[in-house]
Amino acid sequence: MRLSRIHSNPVLDFYTADLATSLELPLFATGVSAGFPSPAEDYVEIALDLNRELVKHPAATFYARVKGSSMIDAGIEDGDLLVIDKVLDAKDGDIAVCFLDGEFTVKRLSVRDDGVYLVPANAEFKLIRITEENEFLVWGIVAFVIHKPR
Amino acid sequence: MFALVDCNNFYASCERVFNPALRDRAVVVLSNNDGCIIARSEEAKVLGIKMGTPVFKCRDLLRRHKVAVFSSNYPLYGDMSSRVMMTLAALAPDIELYSIDEAFLDMSSFGRFDLVKYAHDIRRTVRKCTGIPVCVGMAPTKTLAKIANRLAKKNPVYQGVCLLDRAELIASALAMTKVEDVWGIGRQLSKLLNARNINTAADLAAAPVPWVRKNLHITGAKIQAELNGTSCLPLEQVRAVKQSICTSRSFGKSVTALDELQRAVATFASKCAVKLRKEGSVASMLTLFIGTSPFDDQQARYWGTKTISLQYPTQDTMTLIRAAQLVLDLLFRGGYAYKKAGVVVSELSPIALAGRTLSLFADEALADSEQSKTLMQIMDGINERYGRGAVRLASENSVGWKPNQDRLSPYYTTRWSDIISVKG
């Protein structure tokens, strides 16, 4: 199979596939590693599996639905689906699903000298500073955002 | 060296993962049909709520202390169990799935490591990945690992990890453990033992070997040997004390083809069904696990498990086979040399108590396994000719029967419309 460019703009290139010829290329899910090859690699994958791409740690991956627009400038909109990985360690700048005072909320974590902040990505929403009075927990880190454009 | 990893108050902990506000509140989970209490958080235990208490007997207590009460959400617990087990499988070379919330890990190759430190890592990892708290008991035999786990859970000084490796530690643990709390010693046996003044695990360990062999038979003798530090129960399925039935097998030669695995899994599922009918029980959950040899090269190793909840409690062969095959399709990965597989059915209840009227074919009719097999064969014959469901056990899926589940939490992990909602 060969790709040929059919249209191009400054941001995106559009291709069409030329299906006249075919060449089977093995796609190894386990990546390249030294040592003995896995017997599983004898089986060339026959399709792309979105699960394997989006879910790096299946045992620790959970999903959530977004309600609200406080993260709109970070590309997270009302109705979007979040892929949450609980294995990842929370660090400054991560977008996290937190449990704050009785409800789940998604915000960007900001670790500053005077404490932890939850930063919205929408000018209409206020910055939240976490104090000892808050019931607060980082529940998981947002690994992917799935957005339906229409 | 074996480690027994046991989830703390598993069902209550599952509810808490998706409802962190319940972190310090008393939580209880009710049986099928909201009948009685089958799981309690620590706070609920402190209130004096006993396992198995019918709800109507403690309604006031529950209300007075604002206890969070949940109907059993088996799809959620099954999925969370699969997550815990998959996490554990990645942390040890070999794992034996023992019940929905317990697994034995083979730690024999971990001699060079600081076992206590590693056990704390196991706790931390499972907690981080799944949100479920666990305790770890480690000892040279499985029976002792059970006792170690019990201590880890009961006594806060252990901080969730107890290693019984030295003789004096084992001796004091045995002296602290009542004989009825020893793995495999049921209430019946402990009565017999108490009558002979054998009251603790230490007493049983020290009892005359011939007497134990004569009165407690080979199983008792093995338990005694295990208490004395001789491992006689290797990492394989033994009938769980908790309500579950397991059929599993290590394959003589490795299996690579899906259809071959399907046949094996169907056999295991139907054996489970026969055992269920034999004891007049129905199961609410089914677990399947498949695995390659733990001795294979890391790349060639795969271990998968999944627990699903059955639509209604059942003992039907075909239903269990279908469920097992469905899970197999999800777990199977081509290219691996599978060495073992097994089916576990759990959350058993007596058919008469499963929330419905008595089965048409009650215990006595099904007591004999040959007879029940014939019955199933006849039923399957009729169903084949006249279509599925033409005849079925009165116990299953009678139209219109729906369990009472007033306080069911969402199916957070198995249904898209039920996933958690987060404020954006």
Overview of the structural elements:
The complex is a heterodimer of chains A (150) and B (424). Chain A is mainly β and 150 residues long. Chain A has one helix and nine strands. Chain A has one helix at residues 50-54, and strands at 2-8, 13-18, 61-67, 81-85, 95-100, 103-112, 115-119, 128-129, 136-146. The radius of gyration of chain A is 21 Å and the shape is globular. In chain A, 21% of the residues are buried. Residues 16-37 of chain A have low confidence and may be disordered. Chain B has helices spanning 10-17, 42-46, 55-64, 74-89, 115-130, 142-154, 167-176, 187-195, 201-206, 209-227, 258-278, 317-331, 363-366, 369-386, and strands at 2-7, 27-30, 37-40, 68-70, 95-99, 102-106, 134-139, 161-163, 244-255, 281-292, 303-314, 338-350, 420-423. The longest helix of chain B is centred in the middle third of the chain and has 21 residues, at 258-278. In chain B, the strands form three sheets. In chain B, strands 5-6-1-7-8 form a five-stranded mixed β-sheet. In chain B, strands 9-12-10-11 form a four-stranded antiparallel β-sheet. Chain B has a three-stranded mixed β-sheet with strand order 3-2-4. The model of chain B is unreliable at 237-241, 354-369 and 394-401 (pLDDT under 50). Chain B is an alpha+beta fold and 424 residues long. In chain B, helix 11 runs antiparallel to helix 12. Chains A and B meet through strand 3 and strand 6 of A and helix 4, helix 5 and strand 13 of B.
